[in-house]
Specification:
Elements: E1 9-16, E2 20-21, H1 25-35, E3 40-43, E4 50-51, E5 56-63, H2 64-94, E6 99-101, H3 109-117, E7 131-133, H4 135-141, H5 148-158, E8 168-172, H6 175-186, E9 196-201, H7 204-217, E10 224-229, H8 237-241, E11 247-250, E12 262-266
Parallel strand pairs: 6-11, 7-8, 8-9, 9-10, 10-11
Antiparallel strand pairs: 1-5, 1-12, 2-4, 3-5
Length: about 270
């Protein structure tokens, strides 16, 4: 049940204990509206604002028992989402317009919102936003074909882009699968198709660079966007920048990220 409030009112201040980006204010407002409507919160930092250590983020006032009961939920929500946004900003500063979040999330759309404000790409919010075919999808559709490459080609030869949402993407695990996918898509050039997104799964920067170069030599590169996924780490972003890849999708910007250090101190404490 929601907290209904009591007679003893107190006030507290939420402060940053580290530099970062604040995200989660709208989510906290929504949470308090449902579970603790007696609390009043005034924000000094809105979603997307950068803060420095010791900056005041908000003041909260209301019934003592309600405020203390909600303290940890408020800080958990703010800290987690602000940590994601701060980490995403660190990545996107080194690879602008390239870093994308995957659907491997802890808090679903809240994670995606934090990634967006941190300068990252949200990729797909839901499965139906765009068509991404992986090995499980293709083997369930083409059980009579014996290789992943043959299933990719069969699908690309018959798929209608009208059913694909924002984009069509195919996951590949071998070099020949990437080339065959690009070639199959290029053969449908008369259909005025958008670029096919090819996800290079666990290829690494050097191998991805080789694939990109081969597609250029074969006049296939203009028909596709290349996305790398799997094993993307921050220390390799410079190598990825030189690999010819368009997008780097990773869950490292939102899963296992340290929350931003935020505290709530009751006035007079």
């Amino acid at each position: 049940m929601p907290f209904m409030g009591g007679s003893q009112n107190i006030s507290a201040t939420i402060c940053a204990r580290a530099d970062g980006m604040i995200v989660g204010t709208a989510a906290v407002d929504h949470m308090l509206q449902i579970w603790a409507p007696s609390l009043k919160i005034s924000w000094m930092a809105s979603d997307g604002k950068k803060v420095s250590q010791e900056d005041e983020i908000a003041t909260v006032s209301g019934d003592r028992e309600t405020l203390l009961a909600m303290e940890r939920s408020i800080l958990n929500l703010l800290g987690q989402l602000s940590g994601i946004a701060t980490e995403t900003k660190r990545w996107s500063a080194r690879a602008p317009g390239q870093i994308a979040c995957t659907r491997k999330t802890v808090w679903g759309l809240l994670d995606k919102w934090a990634v967006h404000l941190g300068g990252g790409l949200t990729h797909r919010l839901h499965r139906d936003d765009a068509k991404l075919l992986k090995e499980n999808d293709l083997i369930s559709m083409y059980q009579d074909l014996d290789t992943h490459a043959s299933r990719i080609v069969a699908y690309l030869q018959e798929v209608s882009v009208d059913d694909c949402g924002a984009f069509l993407e195919i996951e590949v695990r071998e070099d020949k699968e990437a080339i065959m996918a690009a070639a199959a898509w290029a053969q449908r050039e008369g259909d005025a198709l958008p670029k096919l997104v090819i996800m290079l799964d666990n290829f690494g920067p050097e191998r991805s660079r080789d694939i990109a170069a081969q597609l250029v030599e074969m006049n296939l590169r203009d028909h596709v966007c290349l996305e790398a996924s799997g094993g993307i780490v921050y220390d390799q972003l410079d190598e990825w920048h030189e690999s010819g890849i368009d997008v780097l999708s990773t869950s490292a910007v939102n899963r296992g990220v340290s929350p931003l250090d935020i505290s709530m101190i009751v006035d007079g404490a």
